[in-house]
Fold this sequence. Notes:
Helix content of chain A: 10-25%
Number of helices of chain B: 7
Structural class of chain B: alpha+beta
Radius of gyration of chain A: 27 Å
Number of helices of chain A: 16
Oligomer: heterodimer
Strand order of the largest sheet of chain A: 4-6-2-13-10-11-12
CATH topology of the largest domain in chain B: DNA polymerase, domain 1
CATH class of the largest domain in chain A: Alpha Beta
Number of strands of chain A: 30
Strand content of chain B: 5-15%
Low-confidence stretches of chain A: none
CATH superfamily of the largest domain in chain B: [2Fe-2S]-binding domain
Structural class of chain A: alpha+beta
Distance between the termini of chain A: 66 Å
Shape of chain A: globular
Amino acid sequence: MDFNQPADQNLFDRATVVGKPHARIDGLLKVTGTAPYAYERHDVIAGQLYGYPVGSAIAKGRIVAIDTEAARGAPGVRSVVTTLDIEPLGIWDYNVARLFGGDVVEHYQQAIAVVVAETFEQARAAAALIETTYERDDIDVDLEAGWQRLQGTGEPSTQVGDVDAAFESAAVTLDEMYHTPSQSHAMMEPHASIVDWADGGQMTVWTSNQMIEWNRQSLATTFGIEPDRIRVESPYIGGGFGGKLWLRADAVLAAIGSRAVGAPVKLALPRPFMINNTTHRSATIQRIRLAAGADGKLTAIDHEAASHTLPGGRGENATAQTPYFYAAPNRRVIHHLVEMHLPEASDMRAPGEASGLMALEIAMDEMAEKLEMDPVEFRVLNDTQVNPSDPSIPFSERHFVECLREGAERFGWADRNPTPGGRREGMWLIGHGMAGAYRGHLNLKSGARATLSNGRVVIETDMTDIGTGSYTILAQTAAETMGLPLGRVEVRLGNSAWPVSSGSGGQFGAASSTAGVYAACVALRQQIAERLGVEDPEFRDGNVIAGDDVTPLAAISEELSAEDSINFGGFQTEEYLMATFGAHFVEVGVHVATGETRVRRMLAVCDSGRILNPITARSQVIGGMVMGTGAALSEELAVDLEHGFFVNHDLAGYEVAVHADIPRQEVVFLDTVDGVATPLKAKGVGELGLCGVAAAIANAAYNATGIRVRDYPITLDRMIDRLPPV
Amino acid sequence: MSPPIRFEMRRRTFLVGTASAVVAANIPWRASAQPTSLAGPDRSTFTLVVNGETRELAVDNRTTLLDALREHLELTGTKKGCDHGQCGACTVHVNGERINSCLSLAVMHQGDEVTTIEGLGTPQQLDPMQQAFFDHDGFQCGYCTPGQICSAKAVLQEIRDNVPSHVTKDLTARIEATDEEIRERMSGNICRCGAYANILEAIHQAAGEQA
């Protein structure tokens, strides 16, 4: 199905299943521990052996020798394969560091060996016996120094008008520096795979991965084999957040181990190995300059940012939202990549906007204060309905102002004390803050197969559910399109044997894959019509209705199957700018003696097109708000500048938000649809929920204390010497 | 309960390991070594009563209770999130109390009664706490969920038993299942998807049904 123009009125505008609150159809499996995750597939193949990884103890250099004698002789060990034993493996499009092979070390805990043994305990013990000799290169992993080198250089990615002139003539200007730290996905399920490549022919991979087809293509490139010799299964994924977009060392080492021993091998990355072996969100340094007239209208935005990356990588582009979010006739945007040999910086939930808005939305708060304007009104005044960097392009739908107004109303924004440090309850300074949210929307081609069998419809696609609710919204889409109750739809996901979907990532999964399932169901409806010899029938209440001719779907005895994809046309990006919008409102208390910041109340208002299932969509957003709370107050990968690695590489040292950190949360979805986006008029929401949250907390902490912290996370030490007398 | 660990044996093992590490640390850029042989027998045979069923196990002494459940008994509902007692995904009940099963060696549990998520209920017959998590969408990816549910059941029992927590203000009064008490007691169970607010609602529902 080609989607070449905005959707008109269609069945989703009178939907009875899509858009309604349905509990997750995979929920019963998850609450009973019976949903099988990658490392748990005892059922799929007999004789699984255990793999255990060894990582480099240096950040950059060369491996001179690896002594495996003791490991090979250890009890239960079946094989040890080191990176010196094999030629450098191939590197797929979006991977940066080599996953295995050769003597070059690019980052700390890059995989350098795998041990295969009969038990987990034996493999782990033997791995500790491996001794490696390195030639260590000097490294420079100082982002601040990189910023100093690059600031003011390079070609802007966006340059509109005359920024310098606008600043010279502005009534009010702001020029501040902001820092966001490196962050880790820290999903609860470690990267894990079982690989059967025993005979060197077909490779079967049971893994935990967001993108099945990318995974299959990466495996093909990495091992130099044909993709059609590889099958990948990932029906349940214990969280990803971008960290499982890529092929990682778990599957590669399990495959090598399997080939070496001629048996299936299972391997999970140990938690303390994950943070330095896999990917993370890069730290950013951001300089933001804003200029405005006395009327509060922005006249110029100048955003210059830097992030780190391995040579050839993408870093974290914190300027992602800046060309589009606010109106201003003059604009300059530039992102510097500082190449260094920290572990691989890559995508994490809302890559770009998540850290960009952490800075930009503090800057907006500061500018509102300078202008003596309400922060909500300041944002309303600087709204735009067109791409401000190219005003000939309108937003497909943009209801940012409604988000701000609705949020302010529900939160009781007007009742807050606007004077910083002006409200105290006992030992707590109370503050309120808000921030805008912006996240671009993107679609990817997505396919599915729909099969009618005994009055039931089975959907098969390589789409994944990483906790987002894919199983449920795809079932709802099929039920709506086929005129069936939800209970008569079965959804099978995460298998490369099935049609290629968008996969899960970049907030594109829900919108793209539901459109793909819709396309497959429309193709199935066509087949059913042909089989029944009727023209353009209606599918309603389990029946095929053509005039007076009513045939129950359950009465069609033969199995009918159709496959199709949704192909998104160029009009979406050539004629429109698609994005999602939101507003976050937060109340915090800051302890007057310790500087501890506690979030007391959170509200998000979202504008992201049709909400396919308000239960799972709300869960996505509250989850984003939790991650944003961690980003604001505790999450920071600490860099060892001498040795080039992240020191706090486990869940004790890398502090994500826990139960005690999270108050009751309110989420409001505006009743908006976006016909430009998909036939279901839906856009993504899973990343929007994170965007702007941390800045809203930072702004609330400022309102509470009068202390402006521009470096995340807002820990006690950044407050304590500036707090008022106890 | 389990017999106490013999400290002497552990101390000896520790010293051997430390000595090797010190030697290795003097060699620039070489990974540290560990002792190649273990003192004493390396396997043990013992029984656990898992979800009411007596199960005989013969495993490597280094096997955690978590791995005994997941790898040997193939009860994979209990999850390995960190293997270091930092995330709570491996929470099970041992003799009625919640523990991190990754921090406990299986051989320490001879005769102990272990309850896992599989012992609480099935998709066809949910425990009220499982039902409450389902009703309130108290999960997303589902990986921390069995640990959250096992913890949540124990939390309510601890409150009923008047076991105080860090946030209990009056040690002489009856402890109530307040938001603050529940959040504090659940804070050893990380949910990176961020379902905390829904989990809180679920626990309140289950607490209400028990009251």
